[in-house]
What we know:
The protein is α/β, with parallel strands linked by helices. The chain contains 12 helices and 8 strands. Strands 1, 2, 3, 4, 5, 6, 7 and 8 form an 8-stranded mixed sheet that branches. The longest helix is centred in the C-terminal third of the chain and has 27 residues, at 205-231. The model has no long low-confidence stretch (mean pLDDT 96).
Amino acid sequence: MTGLVLEGGGMRGLFTAGVLDCLMKEEIRIPYCIGVSAGACNMVCYYANQPDRSRRVNVEYVNDKRYMSWGNLIRTGSLFSEEMMFHTISRELIPFDYETYRKSGCQAMAVATSCLTGKAVYLPVPDLDQDYQPVLASMSLPLVSKVVRYRGDELLDGGIADPIPVARALQDCDRVVVVLTREKGFVKKPESTLKLSRILYRRYPRLIAALERRHEIYNQELQLVEQLEQEGKAFVIRPPQPVAISRTEKDVEKLNALYQQGVDVTQDRMEALHAFLSQS
């Protein structure tokens, strides 16, 4: 079985949205997906078969203070509004197709990080209508999000402990399609906010340890992806050049350009992707 692995990256996830929209246009449905942070958000739109929804949500509401603002952070403890994302937008403004998602028969998992253990937690997402907490936990960025309490655990962004969960996907799959949001050759540096994290998360020493190792884990996982790509076990789609936007980018023109880049790169490699997926 082929699996789909979606890296996070905040607003860099517009690249992934373009990739997945291209897959939907080609009617390519990979029945297993593991998504991290923004990757988990893109994953659910893919399985709901709603092309352009991810792009629209981000581009149309990125400058809406109800969606993302420092005011949200002050009032609620989170930069991104849970109410706006999972209720107002999903049920009223750009309705999410809960029924199609539920009936897709696909295996979807969101990756979060346990603040208690510092380890990755892999959370099934079978029904977004009944339980969106796995996706919320996966996308809860450190320092700008509340800790999500879920099933006896305390969770934050999956990108801390397992940013590119290829090894986890290969426990269930023979091969993987990996969508990255950084260009080839990118090397992650140590976190610049570690001093603040050590203060804010002093209750969670194992989380702090994970944040200290975050760049090492990321770079090791990138090496694994490249090894698997060379071995023919991974098909990797990544931006062709450095992505010059931040996790919280608000420039709509830049976001649309990144989305289109995801579409274009995937279209250019479609023949090779079909060949990869057709291998027995």
